[in-house]
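User: Please fill in residues for this 220-position structure.
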């Protein structure tokens, strides 16, 4: 396959991450197992290319700069797992191709949700993994909230992001006396306005990280 396309594969992409995925990838130069697999599978190739277009569009338009790129780094780290069989070995089969396509399609849907969301954060400058983003968006007639960020390294095996602990909570907002709660955010009461999201109490994500109570301003 001799055409240029967006490819999210670890070795090459980590070297060029500062380019924000703007470079295309020549399948004639594919090197890793995942690269070669993507280039050899028509449907996966097309899905991966579509994900690249979605990424670039949302990364350029979202007001919280750095957030989409940071979440894409997290996705990239997990991307090769779609090729693992039940013994943990990377294999090129129709089953793993289907798993990779499903994984990419899920990421495309997620990127589209980002593009439609109101975004709130505690960030003071460009978003970094240890910052927190809160996204409010509608899906299938329901209103959802997503918390993402507050990365902390593992205390016993400290490695840089994306290894470690991360808040990644997505839940439906349920009315609660004029405000909201969810089934995944402890007893916190969530107030949502155009200008801010307020959390009444701490929300636990893992033993190593959580979300502080307080006000998170809308990013415009």
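Assistant: Residues filled in for all 220 positions:
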């Amino acid at each position: 396959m001799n055409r240029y396309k967006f490819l999210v594969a670890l070795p090459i992409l980590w070297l060029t991450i500062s380019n924000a995925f703007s470079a295309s990838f020549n399948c004639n130069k594919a090197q890793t197992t995942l690269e070669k697999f993507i280039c050899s599978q028509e449907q996966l190739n097309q899905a991966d290319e579509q994900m690249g277009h979605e990424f670039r569009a949302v990364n350029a338009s979202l007001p919280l700069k750095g957030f989409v790129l940071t979440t894409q780094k997290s996705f990239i780290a997990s991307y090769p797992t779609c090729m693992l069989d039940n013994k943990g070995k990377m294999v090129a089969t129709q089953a793993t191709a289907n798993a990779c396509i499903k994984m990419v399609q899920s990421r495309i849907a997620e990127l589209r949700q980002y593009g439609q969301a109101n975004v709130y954060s505690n960030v003071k400058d460009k978003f970094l993994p240890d910052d927190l983003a809160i996204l409010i968006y509608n899906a299938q007639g329901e209103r959802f909230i997503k918390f993402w960020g507050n990365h902390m390294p593992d205390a016993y095996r400290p490695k840089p992001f994306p290894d470690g602990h991360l808040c990644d909570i997505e839940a439906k907002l349920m009315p609660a006396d004029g405000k909201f709660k969810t089934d995944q955010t402890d007893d916190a009461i969530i107030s949502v306005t155009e200008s801010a999201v307020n959390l009444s109490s701490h929300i636990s994500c893992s033993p190593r990280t959580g979300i502080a109570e307080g006000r998170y301003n809308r990013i415009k």
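For context: The helical segments are 10-15, 33-40, 42-61, 67-78, 94-116.
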